[in-house]
Amino acid sequence: MCDICFSERGEKSVVETGDLLMPKFDHDGLIAAVVTDAGTGDVLMLGYMNAEALKRTIETGEAWYWSRSRQSYWKKGETSGQVQKVHQILTDCDQDALVLKVTVGGNGATCHVGYRSCFFREIDATDGSAMKLKKVEADRVYDPEDVYGKS
Amino acid sequence: MCDICFSERGEKSVVETGDLLMPKFDHDGLIAAVVTDAGTGDVLMLGYMNAEALKRTIETGEAWYWSRSRQSYWKKGETSGQVQKVHQILTDCDQDALVLKVTVGGNGATCHVGYRSCFFREIDATDGSAMKLKKVEADRVYDPEDVYGKS
Questions:
Q1: Which residues pair with A89 in a beta bridge?
Q2: Which of B3, B43, B45 is the closest to A126 by Cβ?
Q3: In angstroms, rounded to a whole number, what is the distance separating the alpha carbons of residues A125 and B59?
Q4: Model confidence over A21-40: pLDDT tens digits?
Q5: Chain B from 13 to 72: CB within 8 A of any A CB
Q6: Which of this chain's residues are annotated to bind Zn(2+) (chains A, B) (predicted)?
Q7: Which phi and psi angles does B10 have, rounded to 5°?
Q8: What is the ipTM of this complex?
Q9: C-alpha distance from residue B100 to each of A18, B28, B79, B112 (Å)
Q10: CA nearest B127 in A: which residue?
Q11: CATH number assigned to the domain with residue range B12-139, chosen from the 4 options 3.10.20.810, 2.60.20.10, 3.30.70.141, 3.40.640.10
């Protein structure tokens, strides 16, 4: 018996169309997690989880990640208050990616530079020498400098 | 002069809030691309692009990927007709992930097992020995065996 158990990877057809969770972690032990707003459907961020972070997420209903830059567990919102309450977790056919539908706590922003979504810029036209980006969110939810000071 | 040029990675603040596309490709030369339905916002798949695949996507307006399993370029829909017309490409704060908003051609499915989205299953409760999956799409758009025969 165990509360949060992942099954061993099985036959291709079982992985792709079966009813057992058999997540595939990459050579760094990670699986990609696309995070979307449960209300609007907008993509908020892309994070990475190891097996333990995924277990904590399922167990607590709040999103945990593995920070590749800090090489440590990272409960989203632990310091910022932007906790992600997880409503649904989907997996794809080969079970090497997840989608988390969440509600964001605190001030409602997800991006550490202050925007609602980390995907706040779109690829725009080229100016002839470089591809440019254009903001799709007009204003930030908050100014991180006001909260954390200059970084 | 060049039509599709990516700028070299710059200062953190320039990458995170600037107006130049400076994609970060990982140690395999890849960047993750979350693909969403431009109409519904639903996440359809997660693919990976190298620099050339991203250039082809921007240039042609149709999505190209790098297939990690086949180690080759992969124009989505080339054989299935499920071509992805790209309406918008977003990048995140650290520019190591993309979101593509697309319209799917052909029969409208994205998943090779026949569903509209590759994320057609959600993580359900545990049965006490393993986490189970439950379908969120009731029916497949098509049966791949009808098209390609038994694999």
A1: A100
A2: B3
A3: 11
A4: 999 999 999 999 999 999 99
A5: 16-21, 32, 34, 36, 40-43, 45-46, 58
A6: 93, 111, 118
A7: -115, -160
A8: 0.95
A9: 28, 21, 21, 19
A10: A3
A11: 3.10.20.810
